[in-house]
Amino acid sequence: METEMNEQEKTQLAEAPASLNFYAVTAKGFNLQITLRDLDEYSLMERFAKMATWLEEHRVSPKAVGQQPAATYKGAPIGPDNLPPSPFGNGSPPAPMGAPAPVPAPGAAPAAKGGTFQAVKMEVTPKTDGKAELKFYAAGHRYPDLTSTQSIDRLLQYLAHTGDAWTVQHLSVANTFDISYAVTFEFSEKLNSAGKPYKNLVDVEAA
Predict the structure, then answer these.
(1) How far apart are the C-alpha atoms of 8 and 20, rounded to whole Å?
(2) Domain 83-93+111-206, what fold?
(3) Which of 178, 151, 167 lies closest to 87, judged by CA?
(4) What is the pTM of this model?
(5) Which of 68, 77, 83, 136 has the highest local Cβ count within 10 Å?
(6) For the segment 131-187, what is each residue's pLDDT rounded down to a tens digit?
(7) Is residue 2 within 8 Å of 43, Cβ to Cβ?
(8) d(CA 86, CA 30)
């Protein structure tokens, strides 16, 4: 099956204009979560048709939604007493490199499109239907500077840009991590109760 894409397609796929994901199980019992992305829905379905043929040839069977196994670590469900290792190799967040991104002063008028701030703490709250909520805090802030609730798969795409080993298990249990990330956002057209625009997550990178 063909998997090669040119550089333009790779760039366009960064935002995944069309995507789908499903669960499957191999003949030997391995559980898989597979995500496909393409430039439009028609190309995506052609890619899916080829993938379905390949899966049948290799004895990989589809798995109905709701039958996915719960996230586990060391053979037991993830919980407060059974957490996966830190995504940071030595258990500590990476040290900031260079000057931190400027944090807008309280009450300052927001930029027209968005901005970037340096987050030092990230709270994880798992949600239903394979989603999770991430809250990012700048230094000294009591309330989150940005909250994003999306599918775990999509959130892992953002966190992959940090260079740290984030996994599904890390986003499947409530936890708080000390980080040093530059969080980029754009302002939404929707306003909160205070009349200020919500912030949409755009990217997360090592600071």
Answers:
(1) 21
(2) OB fold (Dihydrolipoamide Acetyltransferase, E2P) (2.40.50)
(3) 167
(4) 0.51
(5) 136
(6) 999 999 999 999 999 999 999 999 999 999 998 999 999 999 999 999 999 999 999
(7) no
(8) 24
